[in-house]
Design brief:
mainly alpha; Four Helix Bundle (Hemerythrin (Met), subunit A); 15 helices; about 0% strand
Length: about 300
């Protein structure tokens, strides 16, 4: 499939295209981890305007990074069925326009965080963008089967930003939260890659399911899941959380492991079950959302 040339479109179509360029569904997941982290850092509900400024800055920074990613990956996006409707593939805007848009988002994001939050948060956001664009997208994605493992660090930075926005510092608790999301990313993304293995193979992207057997991929998914579950159990003592978080982390981790084991069992039977992979993928989103929301609930309940 070829990339379409920019064409005449209505204002609403162009606006929708620019919104799509930021990958809003990914941003939603990043913000779901940021606010609860702020609650844990503040040991209660932080100031309203601090939350707003942090979310605006984080949203713009993540949106800019995602836009840069689409500019760089527009050639492989045109090949893959899952991404062939992205705005740069369909010709909603030119790569130059998208690049200017991405750069503008990053500049505004940095300014918002510096002025209304703090410098540490601003530099963390900028570092996450640089890592996602240069290390993951431009270097690892097309060269290494560990692309998403290492590149997942960028998606874990929002918890560091959430913590630093409240405390203007870092500590062991946000580091543990960072590691949980870092370890969560491979099973989350590899489950999706199992479903779209043919797409990644056609685009010559060495995702784990493309360069390794289904058994090896699903075994690594299971190993990462168990490790993530263990890490979540350390957060309670580190952040002085109560029984709500302890029960939630135990149950949610058990369910995640169950789905991962079921996918691995299918692989052992030589059944490449895309349905099982997508069930794990969708649950992984529910898992991360529930874990962080219930973490915040635990803090709010105890503080009252």
């Amino acid at each position: 499939m070829t990339i379409a040339a920019p064409r005449n479109l209505s204002i609403s179509e162009v606006l929708r295209g620019y919104v799509a360029l930021t990958k809003p569904r990914i941003i939603e997941l990043l913000l779901v981890t940021t606010i609860p982290t702020m609650v844990v850092a503040a040991n209660g509900i932080p100031g309203f305007w601090l939350i707003v400024a942090t979310l605006i800055g984080g949203t713009l920074a993540a949106g800019g990074a995602n836009a840069f990613n689409m500019v760089i990956d527009r050639d492989i996006d045109a090949i893959m069925q899952r991404t062939k409707r992205r705005p740069l593939v369909t010709g909603v805007m030119s790569p130059r326009a998208a690049t200017i848009f991405a750069l503008g988002l990053e500049v505004v994001a940095f300014a918002v965080l510096v002025i209304w939050v703090n410098q540490l948060s601003a530099w963390l956001a900028l570092a996450a963008t640089a890592f996602y664009v240069f290390v993951y997208t431009m270097w690892l994605k097309r060269r290494s089967k560990q692309n998403i493992v290492i590149g997942g660090a960028a998606g874990a930075v929002p918890v560091l930003i959430g913590w630093s926005s409240v405390t203007n510092s870092l500590a062991w608790t946000p580091v543990l939260l960072f590691l949980v999301i870092f370890i969560w990313t491979p099973p989350h993304f590899w489950a999706l890659a199992v479903r779209y293995r043919d797409d990644y193979e056609a685009a010559n992207v060495p995702m784990m399911p493309v360069v390794a057997s289904l058994r090896r991929t699903t075994l690594e998914i299971l190993v990462y899941t168990v490790l993530m579950w263990a890490l979540t159990m350390l957060i309670g003592p580190a952040a002085h959380l109560g029984w709500i978080y302890a029960v939630s982390a135990t149950v949610l981790g058990g369910l995640f492991t169950f789905y991962a084991f079921r996918l691995y069992r299918h692989a052992l039977a030589d059944r490449a079950d895309a349905g099982e992979a997508m069930r794990l993928f969708h649950f992984s989103i529910t898992y991360l959302t529930a874990l962080f929301v219930l973490m915040a609930v635990d803090v709010i309940v105890r503080s009252h």
